[in-house]
Each structure stands twice: as C-alpha cells, then as structure tokens.
Amino acid sequence: MSSEAVATCKASLQVYLADWQTVPLADVADISRGTSWGSENELREPVEDALPVLGIKNVQARLETRDLIWLRGLKPSAIASSTVQAGDILMVGSNGNPDRIGNAVQVDEPGRYLFASLLFGLRPRREVVDPDFLFQAIVAPGAQTAISDAVQGTTGLSNLKITTLRDLPIDLPPLDEQRRIAEVLRSVDEAILAADRALTQAIKVARNVMIAQLVLPRAVSDPLPDGWQVTTIGNLGKVQAGRQRAPSFIAGSVRPYLRVANVFDGFIDTSDVLEMPFTDREFAEYQLLAGDILLNEGQSIELVGRAARYEGNPSGCCFQNTLIRLRATSVNPDYAYALVRTMYAAGRFSEIASRTTSVAHLGVSRFAALLAPVPPESTQIAIADLYAALERNVVDQRACLASLRTKKEGLMSDLLSGRVRVPA
User: Fold this and answer.
1) Is the pTM of this model over 0.90?
2) What pLDDT shows up at residue 357?
C-alpha cells in the first residue's frame, strides 16, 4: 500500500472515530489502595461491629465472597477509604505471582465490604464512563498486556505502581455507545458464566458417579464386591518419579520435558514445554509412552495428585521429578486412569501428603503404598468406559467454554477499539 493510501486510511479512521477520545484511567475513575490491619483487628466469624474484607483470594474469574476475614476496630477514615460500592472494580496490585497482577473483578454483591491493601479499588466516574464498559476495557487483552509490561518485581513480590495504573490509556466512546458495547459484552459474559457452570457440573457429576462406582478401601479388611480384590498402587505397574532438572551444558540429546505446569486436571498442555538434555540411558528410563499416567507430586494440598494421561508425542517426551508416573501393566490401563482420577477427586492423595510451611508432597512411596481395588477384567473395562464417557462430557464442556472466551476476546478487540461500532 502506498504512503498516500495509508494516509487516506488514517484520515478516514479519524473521521470514523471523531467522537472517541483516548484518556488516562485517572480521568474516568478514582483509584486507591485498600486498607491494612493488624492481627488484633482480625476475626474469622462476623460480629455486630465487624466488616468483611475482600483480598486477593476473592479476586478470581469472578468475585468470590466465601471464606471471608472480618475486621473491627479500624479508624473511620480507613473504613471510608476502603469501602467498596456496587460497580466498583477491584484489581490485584501486588502478588508473589506476577501473572496475577492486573486480575480484576467488578463488585456486584449486596452488602458492605472493605478491600485489602494489596488490591486497587477503582470507582468509575459515572458522569463520563459506564461502570460495565470500564470493567470490560480494563480486562481486555490490550489493557492487561500494558499492565503486565509495567509490573515491577522485588524479592518475592511483584507490584504495579498506582501512578502507572492512573496513566493507563482508555479508548472512550460517547456514554450511550459505551452502554451499548457493555451490553453486548455482558451478554457474552452471561453465556461464558453458563458454560462455566455447565463445566463445573460435569466435573461434579463425573466425580460423584465414579466415587459411587469404585469402592476405595482404607484397609485390607474393608468389604469389597464379590470378585474384587485389594492390592497397592505399586502392584498395578511401574511407579517412579521423573528426572531432576539438569544444567543445559550436560551432554545428551535435547528432549521435551514435562513439568507440573504442564499437567492440569485431566489433560496435559504441551504448548509451553521446556527442553532438557538426556543421555540415551536416561531417555530410555524417563521416556513417556502413550497411556502413562502423570501425577503432580508436590504443590498446594488441593493439587497434590492432580493427574492426566499422556497421549504420546512422536519426538519423545520425558518428565520432571515433580511428577510421578504410573505405567499400568497388571490391570487395564484405562481402568488404572479412572481409578487414579477418582482417588484424586475423593481427596485420597491430599490425605496422605506430607506438609511443610508452603508445599505439600505426595511422594512415590506413599503413592505406591495406597490400597487399590481390582475388580474382574470385565468390570475394569466397564468402569473405564463409563469414566471415558464422563470425561468426554467434561472435555466438550471445557472446549465450549474456551471457544466462548476466544470469541469474546475477538469482540473486545473490535468493539473497544472502534473497529466495529454498535448502532443505536
């Protein structure tokens, strides 16, 4: 395209968006940090003069108001400056995980809440900006990328400066168009919420059905259905931890290397896999084969034992020592997978994990020693088929949710930039 054609396009765009303006966030919202408190102010149960406080744990995909902390004895000025209202936006401003900085929710819960000092509170100026539009503009990929690029780190803590947030550019159409854009995006959010609930329900159904189907003994003497036996996980096949990370200069062929970060609840993500050198002997020892089951060995107690099945990689893949592999040889491999996933859902792995201050560990020996039911082969196949059907439903629901989120990102890109206008 010639320079004259580019200039013409830019001029046309300026005319097209003549009623839009780009303003700093501080022009459309009042921004502040939340309150701090001491242990003497903190309660786990509500009393008459206490107020609930929202912290980082409450800022998830949407606002979570379970497991609240209650405060009393704060100065009136602290309460006034950190009280949220309906339509306010809460954003993570400091966290040990830099990826959490910028995560935001809109407050739509009834009741009076305070917010904590590691959060930013944004109160939209309704005379110039629609609160729902502003929330969509802040959670849009462009704004989130700008926030991520501005995060600064200290030892163990990453931060976003309030001055940087105040300067965040916001593309602002007229107020009536803001409302129309917000309405379109809100309708997609409602579809996403419904899909998220459907996924949660599918996971719950799979968990409950499998726990009802599989008798999980705690002692050898526990009664089992006729024809069932009890053994240990270690007797189902080969159990081992992966290889510790090695320096890149170690001689050997470079191989993909799965970590805990690649193993999710029922699936493995290979889009961001490290590569490590392995000798031929090490590769033979730690190579993953299709059907191998991988478990999370150590992390937070809720995630210990989170498992997925490796479906194969033509280039060969190995695994880290933070993962445990089960390669079933004495039972149907699909039954072994259904069993491990059910034991995880039932909390069996978290029950036996060792705990330190910040990390829980399952451990190869404890995992291998767990009691496991072994039904007749025909029952193993029936249980495996049932679990496969339940898992397919979960996968379908997860794909539907992912598709809606992708479509919303595209809509946000079009609507919040003015490339596509929402007619009156």
Assistant:
1) no
2) 62
